[in-house]
Amino acid sequence: MLNNITDCEEGEGGHNSQGDGNPKESSPFINSSAASDAEKSQQYDGKNMALFEEEMDTSPMVSSLLSSLANYSNLPTGSKEHEEEENNEEGARPSKKPVKAPQLGTLMGVYLPCIQNIFGVILFLRMTWMVGIGGVFGSFVIVFMCCSTTMLTAISMSAIATNGVVPAGGSYYMISRSLGPEFGGAVGICFYLGTTFAGAMYILGCIEILLIYIIPQAAIFKIEGLEGAEAEAALLNNMRVYGTIVLSLMALVVFVGVKYVNKLALLFLACVILSILAVYAGVIKTAIDPPVFPVCLLGNRTLLSKGYDVCAKVIEIDNETITTKLWRSFCDSESLNATCDEYFTNNNVTEIQGIPGVTSGILAENLFGNYLEKGVFLEKRGLASDVDPDSPITSSNRYVLSDITSFFTLLVGIYFPSVTGIMAGSNRSGDLRDAQKSIPIGTIAAITTTSTVYMSCVVLFGACIEGVVLRDKFGEGVSGNLVIGTLAWPSPWVIVFGSFFSTCGAGLQSLTGAPRLLQAISRDGIIPFLRVFGHGKANGEPTWALLLTASICEIGIIIASLDAVAPILSMFFLMCYMFVNLACALQTLLRTPNWRPRFKFYHWALSFLGMSLCLSLMFICSWYYAIVAMGIATCIYKYIEFCGAEKEWGDGIRGISLSAARFALMRLEEGPPHTKNWRPQILVLVSVDADQNVEQPRLLSLTNQLKAGKGLTIVGTAVQGTFLDNYTEAQRADQSLRKLMEMERVKGFSQVVISSNLRDATSHLIQVGGLGGLKHNTVMVSWPRNWKQPEYHQQFRNFIEVVRETTVASMALLVPKNISSYPSNGERFTEGHIDVWWIVHDGGMLMLLPFLLRQHKVWRKCKMRIFTVAQLDDNSIQMKKDLITFLYHLRIDAVVEVVELHDSDISVYTYEKTLIMEQRSQILKQMHLTKNEMEREIQSITDSSRGSIRRKNPSASRSQHSAEEGTSVAERPEEESLAVSNSIQAQLIHSKNASTPTSPTSPTSPAGPAGGAATWTDNRGADKGKNLFAASPESVKDLFNMKPEWENLNQSDVRRMHTAMRLNELIMKKSKEAKLVLLNMPGPPKNRNNHTNPMDNAVYKDYPFFADIQVMIFLGFGCLLAFFRLYGFGGMVFNFLTATFAIQWAILVQGYFQFSHDGKIHLGVINLINAEFACAVVLISFGAVLGKTSPLQLLVMALLEVPVFAVTEWAVLKYLKINDAGGSILIHLFACYFGLGVTFVLYRPHLNDGHAKENTSYQSDILSVMGTLFLWVFWPSFNSALTLGGDDQHRAILHTFIGLSASTLTAFALSVMLNKNGKLTMADIQNVTLAGGVTVGASVDMMISPAAAYALGVMGCTACMLGYKYLSPLLARRFRIQDQCGIHNLHGLTGLISCAAGICAILAADEEVYGPSLYEIFTHRAPVEGDPKLQELQMLIPGLRPGLGRTAREQALFQVAAVFSTIGVSALGGVFTGFILKLPYLAPPSDDFCFDDKPYFDVPPNYDSPLQLYSKTATDDSAA
């Protein structure tokens, strides 16, 4: 039994349910949503239909269906809209008159409207000219082609119109409901534009009749006296001015009310019919009594009628020969012996009859065409003319000239608009009594009538009118008369006024119909940006659409030439007719079940012939206009397709797609694809959150880059639950997938599976995805995030099962890691590499992936490098040659490198680490601890093993430190690639599935853009891979075996972990700068009960430095700034407050510039270290204003200083690219001059002579020295935290310690020497001893000797000491800079010395001293990419990155630029911040309360007793 039967075609075109006045198709089913349950029960009582009562809302009774179809009525649009709206407004009255059913028959509803729309301006203004130019034969061919086209189109239209009920919408509804919304929208817009430009053409014809034939005196731009281009320009300007006025008036009439236009329609129709009858009457009269219609010729050239009064050179009056006006036009005087034009002298003047009559035999002369160039004389055939070919043409303004260059295709383009208008009947289908009968009969009859009239007119005009008169477009040779008017009977004015009113009426009809067509398209909603034009006045009038129509129509008015506008609208109408024929042909050939037209006289061959004629005529008329029109239609089509047309009308294109898809699927079933045709057909497995949103959108970005719209893509996800309960969630997930696929431009299908658990749902997707031969052969799934955390262990286990299933199914598996860091489709790599680590043979999958990726614009400029691994018994040179040959045959361009991996002994670290972890893991399992207890135990093992196992320093740059796994995705790629926990690592490498064939379906996987990856492949057929990764029966041992001996442990796991470590090191060295790393990985573990253990994290490398700098920030600076007797609380507590705020603020600001990925700031210990450096900058600046600012001022200073510092740091490092390991430039100089800028603005003149509270005490000095000791002890960590690991970091620690030691000894010596009493000064000990740490900062990691470091410590200490002694008082006294803590001495002077020393060290650095490591320390001096020297260096230093190729001098200049730019920016920032801090709202302390804790703290009662005692003693001494 079938349930929920789909609506059949009989339901098309029902009542409009939306009430918007726009006719649309709707279902005939009657949903009685307003009926109450009681009414329902009464409705079905006694009808034996209670069984189906619940289904009646969606599936009504057959009787209801038949009743709705029998009583169907589609109310008309257009002329009745006002009346309908009035009825709607009066609907509140008790009695409402029922709407009358449509009563129009074939004659009034179809035939006469088509006649009125087909006959138009071209017949009256251009038909005679076309016959004269093209000849009777050529014009007949043109008319026959155009009329045949419209006749064939009418046949196709009749078939469509009689296939169900067509709403009042004409061709738009026919095409859109037959070919789909894309074609419908495109052709609907073309039809709209054609109708709009038709309005412009009719208006131009109206103005041409008015200004040339009725009231020439009304011209604003006078043509009298103008010649050639000037006269033509004046005429066009008159057309533009009057055309704009007429267009405005017509638009106003249409706006006021369409009913007035409809009431005048009969008058306009009468004008057309009377005019045509007058022409036929005139033709009959010429056979009896030809009219007198003289034309004057000079030689064979037609003369302008306004240039002569008598058609003669001279006349005789009273036996006296007198020259005429014509003589005076060609001669220089009136005398008979005057000098005249040569052609005038040599030729006679002849007067001929312009209309000799139908019996004159002139037809033979007009039979063939006479095409003219622009500006050529109109000449009569057969008349002799004496012309000297060598003499120049003169007096050309006396003759009738051709105004345009004419040719056959131009005539076709100008004439075709005269056969348009065949859609008038279908547009009024809602008004017809029986549309399916009236439309075919009326339309075909109208086309037959008009075609007969046109063809007969061609013959009759050629038989009645002289050729030169026919070719005279504007009647210039016949006294400015309308040529067809002179032929008419009884008076030429019948034609003149008839054609004038006809064109006015046609223009009004166009301005009425075009806005409604646009409104219909807009209300269908298929073109989003046109939706605004679907609105109108309260009565449904399309006000906005009318405004747009008038604006577009004005474009045609501005063109101003009827001959130029006609081909434009010809293009649009021809395209519309072409698609009507295409719609009929497709429906006929597809034989869709709902294609049952009542009109039987159609055939698909006729439709194709009509379509071919339309297309041919388009290019015959104007090939460039045809291309433009098709381009417009294509753009609209692609726009609707891009926006995603939401309409479903059961169109023919969908039927074609279904047929083609079925045929293609059947062909695919014939056999497996050949290797040449193989490409990854991807099933993308994504997960959704609680709101059914995709969690890994970048997976689809990668899919787009990999597929580029080719092949099959299925995006699948799983929803947990049951189908009945979770169907809604599945629908939402499906919509989310479709939306994301559309946004990422992934061409494919979405699939959502509901299952009781996610594991089974994923398995179902892998098994049943696809259809027939169109199935996926590759699965893409993201590496499970946060897999180390206990709550995500199930997710990781599901991932392992996916690996197993794809291996069993012989599918490739792509596992991108750190997927959120992958590039989006909008990004571009301008350089870089895609590295392929071809470890085991996979059938060529690894070679194919980079090739496919490089087809996409994101990866197009990346180069490909292939690394393969050679072991001890391999010939590396031969392997490289073989691989190059292999790539040559594959036609892949790549750089090849063979990396040697010797089978050396297992490292001590690997042995001890694996031994300890496996032993303890077994113990914990036997103890049956809980999961949390087990994790704590494992962490304690990891922590304890850090001290007992010696580690090798990584070779990667410390600037690429990563945050903890699960918090940051910007981790070091190669470590991420294989660095999983030890036990799971052993298991991941543990087993290989040997069942996968060596076909292109072998699994592999791409890495992240930073290089991280987790991938699987089979190595069957690769002996070396088998030897390396083969699983032995010994590997599956009892995991609860407690024997601690090495021999009894799983040695295979240890060997595999060792191999992974070695490969990881190689990848880190070779590919750390690659944009993408692709590599094979071993197969899935066979042990399905793996338990993961945490491994070492980057925190263990970075946290010691973080802890040391923490001590410096909070204890060192805090104690150091507490040296004032009464400001101890403020020094330490405000330091605590400011530091805490600055660190948090710096994490955000620096995170935005340096650690932001995908709109998120990723946190890690390295972020905190950088934030603490920014905090140190703020605290150094704090020293300049110590005791003189409020806490609020300090927070505002931190708020402003951190962003300025972050931007400066980012700009200097990104663009100047300097060496500044110890922060002398970016930390010390910036902080110093920022603080000086602040204190310069906050200058307090009363503090220059000292302050009573500006002194220390014994206890405060001791506390301050403690701060100095903290800073002194941990300063090496400060200088070496961000240097490269290894020797560079080692040198940084040594140089810092030597510099500090030198400055300390020098400080003690100078303090005694410069003190008058020869004693030590605590201020010197507290500050000057630290100068050496700053002085060595810029060169701390360079190869300066220990002596140089010692000398720098001495120089810095001396400068600092002298600065405190002499420079600080000078700055306060002369330059208004009150440097409270002397930061200029400790950080400014020493920072400048450090920068100078760093520049000297850079200038002195060369390969003789540094060797190849020079380019590791000074990375920007390394050769650029492609330099042969870079390749030589990379052989010596694997992993060396390309640099900028700077010389030592260039690098030094960049250092100098960084110094000056940093000082300038910091000083300006400090001055600006100082002005902000001066605001009174920030509560700065008064001079009396400076250096005092009392305003801000609850202090002990006697906290200032020493000071009071001192003041009292001083007073007593002065009194004495």
Describe this entry's structure for a reader:
With 1520 residues, the protein is mostly helical. The strands form five sheets. Strands 8-7-6-9-10 form a five-stranded parallel beta sheet, sandwiched between helices. Strands 13-12-11-15-14 form a five-stranded mixed beta sheet, with helices on both faces. β6 (682-685), α24 (698-707) and β7 (713-720) form a beta-alpha-beta unit. α6 (127-161) crosses α13. The longest helix has 35 residues, at 127-161. It starts with 36 loop residues before the first helix and ends with a helix.
Distance linking N and C termini: 124 Å
Strand content bin? 5-15%
Share of helical residues: 40-55%
- The tally of helices reads 51
Biggest beta-sheet profile:
5 strands, parallel
Mean pLDDT: 76
Low-confidence stretches: 1-56, 65-99, 904-918, 926-1049, 1090-1096, 1512-1520
Sequence of strands across the biggest β-sheet: 8-7-6-9-10
Total strand count, please? 17
**Class by SSE composition:** mainly alpha
Key descriptive features of the protein:
51 helices; elongated; mainly alpha; 1520 residues; five-stranded parallel beta sheet; five-stranded mixed beta sheet; single chain
List the helices and strands and how they pair.
Elements: H1 37-44, H2 62-70, H3 81-89, H4 106-118, H5 121-125, H6 127-161, H7 171-179, H8 181-214, H9 228-256, H10 258-288, E1 294-298, E2 301-302, E3 314-317, E4 320-323, H11 325-330, H12 342-346, E5 349-353, H13 408-415, H14 424-427, H15 435-464, H16 467-471, H17 483-487, H18 492-524, H19 543-559, H20 562-590, H21 604-621, H22 623-643, H23 652-668, E6 682-685, H24 698-707, E7 713-720, H25 723-743, E8 749-755, H26 758-768, E9 778-781, H27 793-808, E10 812-814, E11 833-838, H28 845-853, E12 863-870, H29 876-890, E13 895-900, H30 908-927, H31 931-948, H32 973-978, H33 982-988, E14 1005-1006, H34 1023-1029, H35 1051-1071, E15 1076-1079, H36 1099-1120, H37 1128-1154, E16 1156-1157, E17 1160-1161, H38 1165-1184, H39 1191-1216, H40 1224-1241, H41 1258-1280, H42 1287-1314, H43 1322-1327, H44 1331-1335, H45 1346-1374, H46 1383-1404, H47 1407-1410, H48 1414-1417, H49 1428-1436, H50 1448-1477, H51 1505-1519
Helix pairs in contact: 4-10, 4-15, 6-13, 6-15, 6-20, 6-21, 7-8, 7-20, 8-9, 8-18, 8-19, 8-20, 8-22, 9-18, 9-19, 10-18, 13-20, 13-21, 18-19, 20-21, 20-22, 20-23, 21-22, 26-27, 30-31, 30-35, 33-35, 36-37, 36-38, 36-41, 37-38, 37-39, 38-39, 38-40, 39-50, 40-46, 40-50, 41-42, 42-45, 45-46, ...
